[in-house]
Design goal:
- InterPro entries: DHBP_synth_RibB-like_a/b_dom (IPR017945), Sua5-like_dom (IPR006070), Sua5/YwlC_C (IPR038385), Sua5_C (IPR005145), TC-AMP_synthase_SUA5 (IPR050156).
- This is Threonylcarbamoyl-AMP synthase.
- Its EC number is 2.7.7.87.
- With 450 residues, the protein is an alpha/beta fold.
- The protein has 2 domains: 4-257, Alpha-Beta Complex (DHBP synthase); 286-313 and 328-448, no CATH class.
- Helices cover 23% and strands 21% of the residues.
- The protein has helices at 37-52, 74-84, 99-106, 126-132, 151-154, 168-177, 197-204, 243-247, 305-312, 400-416, 434-444; strands at residues 4-7, 15-17, 29-31, 57-60, 65-70, 93-95, 137-142, 159-163, 181-182, 210-213, 224-227, 234-237, 256-257, 286-290, 332-338, 350-355, 375-382, 386-395, 421-425, 447-449.
- The strands form 3 sheets. It has an 11-stranded mixed sheet with strand order 1-10-4-5-9-6-8-7-11-12-13, sandwiched between helices.
- Helix 1 (37-52) packs across helix 6 (168-177).
- The radius of gyration is 23 Å and the shape is globular.
- The termini are far apart.
- The structure holds threonylcarbamoyladenylate (TXA) and magnesium ion.
Length: 450
Amino acid sequence: METRVVKVPGRKPLGRFREISGPSRLQHWDIDTGVDEEAIKHLKEAAEYLKTSDTPVAFPTETVYGLAADATRSASTKGIYTAKGRPSDNPLIIHVCDLEMLRGLLVSDPAREPGEDADPIPSRYKPLIERFWPGPLTLLMPNPKPSRLAPEVTAGLPSFGARMPSTSLALSLIKLSGVPLAAPSANASTKPSPTTAQHVKHDLDGKIELILDGGPCPVGVESTVVDGLCDPPAVLRPGGVGIDELRSCPGWENVVKAYKDHGHDGKDAAPRAPGMKYKHYSPRARVVLYEATCKEGSGGITPSDAELARIIGKGENSSTNGSVAANGKHLRRIGVIRTQRWGPAAGLPNDNLHLAAGEQNGNNDPQQPGTSYDVLEGNLVDDTRGVIGTILDIDLGRDTRGIAQGLFSALRELDRRGADVIFVDGIDDEIDIAGAVMNRLRKAASEIRT
Ligand code: TXA
Ligand code: MG
């Protein structure tokens, strides 16, 4: 199967909610067909394909790229599991374009007159929908019996995850399809989620026919998944909406964490989102994470000499990419992802640090400032032995939202450049989206320094 990447730049909004305020604000998404005819033409083709084919289509959302299929058909949703290599007990998130579409999924008989029953959207979700939708928040909804959803999407659970993505491209694709779209992240299972069309192509080339390229995703980590059907309500996966933001909403003051994080506070709960138990977000390289709480003297806040010696150490030649120097020693490629504390190359002894050759992270879209970073390359040096390896250095900046945006992309970029190990500077996970960043990093890490 040949995989086509179709650019849908979406410079202008492709549609809008019919009412901009009041109780009906998110009720109807309408498409503006005249604004960007080229983009709408591509979306119409993709929507037609989604309705008729059993092969999923990749599309961008504000969080990460998703791999979409008609959520009402078994054959098409099965196609998602096949393309990704995803375990079948891991349910999919259902993407809707407006509340009308969501309500249609919450009642067994959508033909009944509106107003005959009370609103089927659980009242506890109202403040969250009002504040965070459309946006990076997935809400567990009761799945009625009979349900319009294909049984594969819920993996046998009595609930389904519903999300209203915020980009006009995603909302318009769903609207044109006329059906809710089941979509997990469009990576191969266990790999970091894709934040560009190139990442999707790397993982799923030959397995799907169509990737809609809308540029880099602005949030960069997946949606927060919450369960408000239980008491107290619970966060099943941290994501684009922070737990502190949830706590500020009525009825959500006591929301608890129901995911395993291996964090430093040791108060982890067993995971309740099936997907949170699997190995995830792993680049090929070994990731060593330095927790933000770690102090100098208790393991060091930067990779220590001892750490390096262990990695580069004598006779250790398991490097898959390292070249062999004239003296027969294996040269290692050391990746560094810097955030709030580390200086260039994380303080490792280096020389000739310069802008690396080749395409940078592929996010250099002038329309999306702040979504690109540079990769620096230099020598790793040793006082006595000279050049002992290569440093690949990425600075994601100090801002947590910027770090979240670049995180998956940086892990993939260092993999692409052949890093054997990646040292990452962790951030304090107490505020906003930082909780999601550290959750993903702890899952990606082979070793955690505290
Ligand atoms: O931002 C996102 O959420 C992206 C974009 C594409 O929308 N999607 C995404 O989907 O990350 P996925 O499939 O990679 O992750 C969905 C998570 C998994 O951990 C899954 O187990 C959990 O949500 N989940 C889905 N339905 C559930 C349910 N009914 N009960 C508990 N957990 C559920
Ligand atoms: Mg995923």
